[in-house]
């Protein structure tokens, strides 16, 4: 069996690295050693080694096998490639192949390695302003993805050639292996070490993708963001993910929206909230004021005697319903502002108002009152 280099060491990641970290390392190294970009001696061999390492670590089954046995071809730590003898005659033939069906060596079905498989899904984070989320917009985005190699059409074989069915596993991608145990001979099913479970062998690899069938590409796509999206919402673009295997479709692209907050408005779904400061006089006598909305300023009447905290509703001045028809409302909360500094004339006017209302206000003394007190001493 051919020796397998440590894929973690090849990609420069730890054994507890996440799938995203593994993929990031692979992309960086595959770009660094790609023969089209790196003409140094040994770059092509390094590129191949990086691809083989990623092929192991990106496949949960192969990764688990390597983590346990140090190989993707079988259980080297227990019995190795033992085929017969040893404990095979322990206790007579009654135990022969007794555990076969429990270890996948019986008549159980396996997945077809040549069946079409959809490509991986991708995620893209998009930043939006408050207004862009409310009204939507059309834009284009660019990102890197794995696409089908145009030279070989995704087969991985040199132009004019085709992959051949693996003669060792007959195209199934799996082989039956017998191991001796104290209870008899155990037949297990494991991934074919010659074709790495693909069922096919590429004798002459494509010079562009080096047998992977995929290449890294910068992809651009037009996006129509619907009006009414909110922070954390996501949108699926079918077929804009990574290329599939064996003629399978491309995966999908999920766009996650990060919506910025507004300095003026607050939003909950289709409803928008706005705080409107008004003066004491406007609240007492009533007024018609300009109110900001996401659709522009509108006129709103303030009835005489309005109290602070009163809520007014502007129908249809909110955000569009994302999954429905129509537009939400804007709720305007009135905040009556108390003046912080008054001139003498304003103070006298308020005192007169208080006296007319029968109120006795103990506010700041006037200059006249202070002088009066001073002369009595």
Automatic annotation (TrEMBL):
Pfam families: DnaJ, DnaJ_C, DnaJ_CXXCXGXG. GO terms for molecular function: ATP binding; heat shock protein binding; unfolded protein binding; zinc ion binding. A zinc finger (CR-type) spans 136-218. Residues 6-70 form the J domain. One of its GO terms (cellular component) is cytoplasm. Its main location: cytoplasm. Belongs to the DnaJ family. SMART domains: DnaJ. Binds 2 Zn(2+) ions per monomer. Zn(2+) 1 binds at residues 149, 152, 206, 209. InterPro entries: DnaJ, DnaJ_C, DnaJ_domain, DnaJ_domain_CS, HSP40/DnaJ_pept-bd, HSP_DnaJ_Cys-rich_dom, HSP_DnaJ_Cys-rich_dom_sf, J_dom_sf. CXXCXGXG motif repeats lie at residues 149-156, 166-173, 192-199, 206-213. Its cofactor is Zn(2+). Keywords: Chaperone, Cytoplasm, DNA replication, Metal-binding, Repeat, Stress response, Zinc, Zinc-finger. Zn(2+) 2 binds at residues 166, 169, 192, 195. It comes from the Bacteria. Residues 136-218 form the CR-type domain. This is Chaperone protein DnaJ. Participates actively in the response to hyperosmotic and heat shock by preventing the aggregation of stress-denatured proteins and by disaggregating proteins, also in an autonomous, DnaK-independent fashion. Unfolded proteins bind initially to DnaJ; upon interaction with the DnaJ-bound protein, DnaK hydrolyzes its bound ATP, resulting in the formation of a stable complex. GrpE releases ADP from DnaK; ATP binding to DnaK triggers the release of the substrate protein, thus completing the reaction cycle. The gene is dnaJ. The J domain is necessary and sufficient to stimulate DnaK ATPase activity. Zinc center 1 plays an important role in the autonomous, DnaK-independent chaperone activity of DnaJ. Zinc center 2 is essential for interaction with DnaK and for DnaJ activity. Homodimer. It comes from Liquorilactobacillus oeni DSM 19972. GO terms for biological process: DNA replication; protein refolding; response to heat. It is found in: Cytoplasm. CDD domains: DnaJ, DnaJ_C, DnaJ_zf.
